[in-house]
Amino acid sequence: xxxxxxxxxxxxxxxxxxxxxxxxxxxxxxxxxxxxxxxxxxxxxxxxxxxxxxxxxxxxxxxxxxxxxxxxxxxxxxxxxxxxxxxxxxxxxxxxxxxxxxxxxxxxxxxxxxxxxxxxxxxxxxxxxxxxxxxxxxxxxxxxxxxxxxxxxxxxxxxxxxxxxxxxxxxxxxxxxxxxxxxxxxxxxxxxxxxxxxxxxxxxxxxxxxxxxxxxxxxxxxxxxxxxxxxxxxxxxxxxxxxxxxxxxxxxxxxxxxxxxxxxxxxxxxxxxxxxxxxxxxxxxxxxxxxxxxxxxxxxxxxxxxxxxxxxxxxxxxxxxxxxxxxxxxxxxxxxxxxxxxxxxxxxxxxxx
Length: 353
What we know:
The structure is a single chain. This protein has 353 residues and is α+β, with helices and mostly antiparallel strands. It folds into three domains: 4-69; 73-244, Endonuclease Chain A (Endonuclease, Chain A, 2-Layer Sandwich); 249-344, Roll (Pnp Oxidase, Chain A). 27% of the residues are buried. The protein has ten helices and 15 strands. It has helices spanning 4-34, 37-70, 80-89, 106-121, 136-144, 152-168, 172-177, 222-235, 244-248, 319-330; strands at residues 73-75, 93-97, 125-131, 178-183, 189-194, 197-202, 214-218, 241-243, 250-256, 259-266, 268-271, 274-278, 289-292, 304-309, 339-344. Strand 2 (93-97), helix 4 (106-121) and strand 3 (125-131) form a beta-alpha-beta unit.
């Protein structure tokens, strides 16, 4: 549950401060008992006041804290610069739940990535959940934003390319705390969290979510608990999410004459249920088959066995179209891609024909 450690810390602080005040009051009252005259009266009055202050602090401090947490601040739109400033100071947790984020667009990218690096250096865990660009919800969101002329899958793929490149620049210790996942579900909530505070909004029809009012909430509040639960639900759902690493490449095991030879990480795209890989990392020879676990199947699932077919002009997707999909996902190619379609083997057709 979010904020449990913070609540426990505040409760301990209240009891410690209250206990300290009671200790001071007890010492004053004891001194008053041992004294006489004006000094005794003075210490008695002060001691009684401190006792009342201690009791009031223990009782009312939690109430004031709860009132503060329940207070919601409304902002007219997403304040990018303010969020970047909070990222630099974050030391526990940063979370982003969105379709794609303007924080990684060209004019903001360098400043944002510096802030993310600062948060990681401070010890924060940085988690990003972005919409899967290949899912139907991404296309639907593009249709909702048709008047804005926004190609949602293209923006998401651009975000993912830059996040993958940024991750490779990090030291292993920092890279371990940067986690990016893609979700395949209808987007409903936008979340930008830094430590115990967050900006949240909902996705309006026909408008960018950055240009609508944002609610700044405490993650210990009911609003914070709601968005935390939504984030956790998506993050932990193996069938609905895939890691950036699995999105960027797939592990294939090369096989020859029924024997496994070597594992290779290769780029891939999935289009209309067909899987294509870039075979530059190994020499394509016949008869060669591969074993692979392709998304959305979870890691650890039984791998499928495929033969490799060269895209042809008569296919449902001609070679130029396949190349264009690789360019959209990985950036413009250098013309050296060796593209092959994965054709599932069946017991009746061991060669995948």
